Structures
1.
Amino acid sequence: MSTTTRKGGKLQSEIPGLSKALCLKLLNDLEKGKRPVLHATKCSLDNSIYNHKVGYLTPGGKKVATELNVSSVKKMSRAVFMLEILLRNIESGAVNTKRELYYMSKGETKNTPLLKPLDFTEQGESDETIDFLCEILECYREEFNCYANDRGGQTYSQQLVVTETLTDGDTAVVDLSKLGTSPFQPKNRPQNLRLSAKKKIDFCLIVESEGTANTLVANGITKRHNCIVMGAQGVPSNAVRGWAKLIQDQLDVPMYFFGDLDAYTLQNIYRTLKAGSAASLIRNQDYSAPDVKFLGVLPEDIKRYDLFDYPVKENDVQEVRALKKADDALKNDPFFQDKRNKGLADILRWLYKNKRRCEQQAFFSVNPKDPTMPEKIIVDKIKRGEFV
Amino acid sequence: MAEQKKISSSSTAEYFSKNLQQVGFSSPTKAVLTTLKEAVDNALDACEEHQITPSLRVEIDRLGAGSIKNSERIRVVVEDNGPGIDADDLPKVFGEYLASSKFGRGRCTRGQQGIGISAATTWAQLTCAQGAKVVSKTKNMRKAVSAMIEVDIKNNKGVMKNRETFDWDRPHGTRVEFVFDGRIQINGEAGLLNYLLGTTLVNPHLQLEYKLPDQEVQKVERVSNDVPMIPEATEPHPHTMKLGEFIAHSHLFGRQKVSAWLKKGFSRVGDSVIEEIAKKKELGVPKANFEKLVDQLADGDLNKLFSAIQNTELKAPSTNSVLSIGEDAMSKSIQRLGKVDFFSVVTRKPTICDFKPVQVEVAIARLEQRGGDADDPSQLLRFANRVPLQFDKSACAIAQALSSVNWRAYGLAQPKDAFPLGPYIFAVSVVSPFIKFKNASKETIDASDELVEEIRRALIQAGQKLSRYIKAEDKANELEEKIRYIEQFGPILVEGLARITQAKEDQKKRARDGLMKILGRDTNETEKELTDANKKLEIQKAKDSEEQA
């Protein structure tokens, strides 16, 4: 089984067969008195490969082997127990969140005395079990009908039309220009969506702050320009990542990310959007948009537009941690080490060295009397090619 | 011009009566504990001095409200079967400061200076206007004497009042009763119970009967009939002396030759040392000076002699003057604290710390009855010359040594630089004729680097022994846990796999058998480890009993 050969949607039908084969192998090993071993893909930076032609982080060859012994028998029993619940969901078409699955598993253990020892005391334990299964079968949890909250990704456009195939086979067509001031909220099942444009779209702008995306639209960016504006709402959720990938694949428009100039944004938000993350190596293929460019804030924007920037405060735990991580990323992260991402690595190095940050909202300081000034700067930057 | 103020001198008693906080009477709670402690110390010292196996009776009552704010009127009675005190000596013992048979003798007795019990009498006198009520009888007395002893504070003299004689139904002994203002704290680190239990722990030969307020009479039997022989003091080592002490010491040997004084009056000074000093001209002590009588030496000569000795290398002081409780006695005694799961005791060889002989002993026990949380710090019992220390723990050499050991290496939980956690009792005894306390109330042992290191080594040795018990127990728990795991999860795993694969019953059975075989191998390994751990423990136990024998 290989993550690079399959496309989302096709694999779900394969999962029951793969699961059964895996369980049969375990059972046969047991019959022979041989210790069964489960191999899971190692999802960490040291097993991440970045190839600019692929565009996102892919798993290397490292596997985590779990051999059956007294210490692992509980983990394996829990995995088989959860697999049974998930396979039942696939069969019936039922969909659940991780939290719901946690409670479902608790219901099972409550009603079946034999299963009592498997009881999950916290959701973290059942989440780990689901992730473990995904790493063994190299599949997404969505393929197990386990979906996350559709957080972030509110999208505005006067040209974009979304066609969704529903589970009962019906289709729903959403023309974003007809939504008034409401945004379109993408789902994290991108495989069910088809995109089209009523008119040629010039660019897609992904804004880190949901509020700023809203402001740009309210001030008329989508009226003045043929574009898509999306709010990422911080670290992109699977919905945002899948949605960005869909826009990239189906519309072929230039995509730009506009966010804060700081180490956290660059590593945790932008890098995840563009190339995925080490924790989600298996899903990066369908949950990253390698064509997204970093529009800013760039270090040179500070001088060019005389923006307010400030040193990273010691009590800013998130940013202090991100700066520490930056040093490690420059040395070990294959994404920042790739020479084609030198521009991005230079920004990270600049941040690490100067320990300063500049927020995206600083563009509002350029001409406070002109509410469209940030939009003008953004469009200007796109035109002049001032992005990385 | 202002009138010149008259300079007056005060008696020792006057000084202490105004500074009782320096000798353990700084609060009503401490007053009760210190009074009890002084009376018990004296009783035990007297018994040991006369090789009597001590039987003590302690009684503490509340008599009503005290005269000091937030205090109660307390009665403390301590009765012993010791040698008794001659009637004429009673005022000196209970009513005169620094009138002691132990002062400066350099022996490992509990009392050292002759301050404590007189301070207790003073406190009773100041708060309740009556001194110590004493009954005593020596074996030569036909009748016992009963009297009230008070301190004549102006003159530092004991005063005897209400002297009476009566028939006492015992051959000898002493009973002392104090009524004073104080406050009773029974439990906790600074509580009376802790003091009494601690005292029994380091005195295996003690039989103690005690009655605390609102509690039944408790009796703790002795676990040893051997009364410790308190080693005779060795002569002072010149390197532990100051010039003034050296000169004062010379007065005791006035009509003897200087060489004889040095050889008889000091330890570690012999002919070779004298010859070495005489040879080195730069030291300024000619050979002839050693032949003079001590009286004939001028002050300048004594100064030179003192400096010469200080600058000459001498052997470290002898360790013969220290006293140990012994591992055997400690092993028995620690079991009087309550039911223990296991314990480990270590008696270090006497050694020299800061140029003073010292011996450290450690007992660690895990109590069966575990009051409190597993995350509570362990209990530390500190002893100096077999007297429990209950205050100012953090500055004490013993506490610092305990925190400095890495107990995690021996299987105990321990936050960084802190006491280990869990239901353990650590008892550490430091015995020395010259313990350096941080204060006159003898609550804390000064934490010199050498002493802390010596205590630390004793703790490490005890920790190593203890770890064998913990390891054996851990292995037994591990085995039990593994068996429980196999029994619980084995069938669940096979059933789950069988349901997903729709396996038949015979396939299920084979898989179940195979699984039990695989997991059984894991338990075999732990069983072997457990056997090894138990073997090591048995070897240690055998070695311990051999050493104790």
2.
Amino acid sequence: MTRNLRTAFFSALLVLAVAVPVFGLKLTTVGIRVEVHGAEAGTFWIIAACAVAMFAWQLVRTRLAAGWAASPSLPTIPAGAGSFLTLPSTQRWIILGLVVVALAWPFYGSRGAVDIATLILIYVMLGLGLNIVVGLAGLLDLGYVGFYAVGAYTYALLSHYYDVGFWTALPIAGAMAALFGFLLGFPVLRLRGDYLAIVTLGFGEIIRILLRNMTELTGGPNGISGIDKPTLFGLSFDRRAAEGMQTFHEYFGVAYNSVNKVIFLYLIALLLVLLTLFVINRLLRMPIGRAWEALREDEIACRALGMNPTVIKLSAFTLGATFAGFAGSFFAARQGLVSPESFTFIESAIILAIVVLGGMGSQLGVILAAVVMILLPELMREFSEYRMLMFGALMVLMMIWRPQGLLPMQRPHLELKQ
Amino acid sequence: MSRPILEVRGLTMRFGGLLAVNNVALNVQEKQVVSMIGPNGAGKTTVFNCLTGFYQPTGGEILIEGEAIHGLPGHQIARKGVVRTFQNVRLFKDMTAVENLLVAQHRHLNTNFLAGLFKTPAFRQSERQAMEFARHWLEQVDLIEVANRPAGTLAYGQQRRLEIARCMMTRPRILMLDEPAAGLNPRETEDLKALIGMLRQDHGVTVLLIEHDMKLVMSISDHIYVINQGTPLADGTPEQIRSNPDVIKAYLGEA
């Protein structure tokens, strides 16, 4: 009981210690000076009430928990259903169903919704790519956004200086990102865990700062604008085509509608996501995919079995980066503008959050998590000040209730023929 | 007279001021079972680590069929047919038993990226063979029932057997077992003994063994090396070792 009392007392004190400076004091500019003013009395009353509430809650918490356990439990998803959902075969069907829906709905959805869906698809692609590095190979990469930036700037620069179209630049962007992934892979081969995370974090920042400071080439903080949009076999989706080009609506004799462009971009993103899904699905069932997972589980055992950890790590970094490169070049094409500020650390954090939230290694999980992570902030624009707070709360809740992720990967069942 | 498959001369491993292995020599003939025994901390596992390339020995020579392997990285030594198990089992715990066996065949599989991407007939064929080989060994070590369970959830004895089967996936010439009987009950130890015998008889594998279970060591070994405080103390057949006064002294202390 005394322990409870002490915990309760300190919890209440903590509430006061945190809330009084944050909510109770306000900085106001008076002339050229900054003065500290106390907030209104009402605010202090609310803080005090919160502290008292915390005190009471901490006192009765254990007893409540006991009562909670005794009461009939809340309806939860039955265990069977959970494992059914995470079965690879089920996931394949769900993904197939999702693809059909995803192909059909933009023609009925609103312009804004299709635009957000395109953004979600970009993050799905990034999440799937990072999933290779983090989820499968178990290499914590906090600088993934660097490869995304490499992809985006590759297309932006090619388009700006050499007038290269999107479809030509796409593989080049992927290859460039792969090259950077490979180059980053070398110095970090000996690192694991925290150390690896710090080095990759630095790498992501280096790329961003380089892009900002190489003003002559990349336009510095202003970035590069006027990047060409993708075309459909040479047909542009603009109202008026550039010289020697034809527009989509003229060629097909339909009225010009700006929605067409949005839908077209969406469909390209979907195509890229499907390609990514296909490749990663195959990779998982290939020796290299299994080797990644083995490396995550035990590097020493891998070496003892004659597998070269260097090659396995480098291939994970390279392939993961490739998908970021594709996503980046598409991002550049969609925005028509790239600037270093699109590739800050928070992007890496969001992508990593998508992978963790979805369940390491699970593809459907990544898709679901990308939808949640991108859609929620969009839906809650009114609460945008509290976005980061909710972000944090969501993460904490997830780690408590479902630390393995929304839809964790299940091992494939391999049939052994007699 | 069979030919020597593994020769070690003057193997020395020094960690700073500590001489962990001092001038150890081994001579292992093909298809033999050779044991290394010695008190805890005698440097037996360090010898293993040197042989498998996890440590770079400070001095000495390691020859596999006359070919020097000291100084090579671990995975290359493994590719020369020297594989090992670990004192504390090192399985890929989240992967299923059969996946563990597939991973170990990595080097023998079709790892061509495009072949796997488009599932060419050659790729399917190679995967099918891998599955077949894995199934064969799961049967050999009696784990076919639990083939699709995550390796980490298997019973301890099963994990030990799976680790040996995983080594066999690499088609080794020398199998090095680091205390394979540790934590096994007498019944499982008997099975292990039969398994080691089978590996030697049917698969022509040379076995190098570190073990504390003297009953197992004495009944299965062709030759025994005794190491004490990093230094070779004696070697010979089980009978010679059993009656060697130095060995008895090292194990039981001064009388």
